[in-house]
């Protein structure tokens, strides 16, 4: 029964007809509708894309799809988020007037359709037809179905001209591009922005003999000591060496912090914020007796599973780092701190839409608090590497500068560019690591670039 606002029964003949949910839907419609819902969750509600696409705990509409439709949803969302400023500009250029206030659901329908027309191998007529059907099935958008049809058909007809016009639009939100300009200059900021459109490489950290594994796996050896793969068929577990635990997947930049310690034989080592365990494995292989900490027991469970595949062991402790007080200090500590992850947008294009300046400030404050406590856990003469995958100096250089300015008995140990052939440009004048996605050019057929990362090596003097 449907009631009026005063509680009286509404005559049936005045009710708007409901869509027949039992009627068959057009092939591909549910995938597009799911993509629009998840885009709204990411952009409007700031929810992480990985969570929505989780096969066990993700968006219910996504979990209800078959695997081929899930793959399509992932492709649409990753493409839309990578190109969103350009897609918005394209849509705006084809509208006589801006979309009405509050028409966010309509915007998302147009955006995912535009992404298919401009950047994906989807027939234009299919993208248009399914977008119009989405609009017709949503009471909020039904009255705009003709507009959706007209705008998208025109986009298909004028695709080449539109692509040329929007190529001038940086594919990165303005708030973060401004921060990059301040840190690195206009040209570098634009290059970093453009680089997020490139496919992310698949890098492996190997237990030994990177050159040999590069030949076996048709990849190239990296200056970080790892291997970068060329395109290949099949999944990661199908590759030689996976079952034997000879290597693990880890971006080349992420492998740098653990290597800054050198030989750790006979030393007590703490890996703070350790999960999922790639850096923990590196510290074990360097000879350290490693204690791996993480606040989450479930994340430590994953870490132990990863180490088991590699045939490696570490002591694990589920605890809040700020309250961790071991009976004995450590010779070496790795603090790869929680951050905004703005250096990983090639892999996680949602980051710049779910984070903002307030998040960076909050995370920088957390990093400083964690680093100050971590330094108290060092033995005299012990070393600590502080790192994270943010591109913003507020989460890296500025944190370390404040601590060095007001903390006694702590000094920076400069990293020598001569020790890192091929990555000399990543060593700052102060002797810290600052990788950018535009670094590490590769031969043709191999993806270039690496994650944005910061790392500094500190020592307790007394």
Describe this structure in words.
The protein is α/β, with parallel strands linked by helices and 462 residues long. The chain is built from 17 helices and 12 strands. Strands 5, 6, 7, 8, 9, 10, 11 and 12 form an 8-stranded mixed β-sheet that branches. A 4-stranded antiparallel β-sheet has the order 2-3-1-4, covered by helices on one side. Helix 13 (278-285) links the parallel strand 5 and strand 6. The chain is elongated. It starts with 28 loop residues before the first helix and ends with a strand. The relative contact order is 0.09. Residues 1-23 have low confidence and may be disordered.
Mean model confidence by pLDDT: 94
Rg, Cα atoms, Å: 25 Å
**Distance N to C terminus:** 77 Å
In terms of quaternary structure, what is this? Answer: single chain
Helical segment tally? 17
List the helices and strands and how they pair.
Elements: H1 29-43, H2 49-52, H3 60-63, H4 67-94, H5 104-119, H6 124-137, H7 145-157, H8 159-166, H9 174-184, H10 186-195, E1 203-206, H11 210-216, E2 219-221, E3 227-229, E4 247-249, H12 256-259, E5 268-272, H13 278-285, E6 289-294, H14 297-310, E7 315-318, E8 330-336, H15 351-354, H16 357-375, E9 378-388, H17 397-406, E10 410-412, E11 433-435, E12 453-460
Parallel strand pairs: 5-6, 5-8, 6-7, 8-9
Antiparallel strand pairs: 1-3, 1-4, 2-3, 9-12, 10-12, 11-12
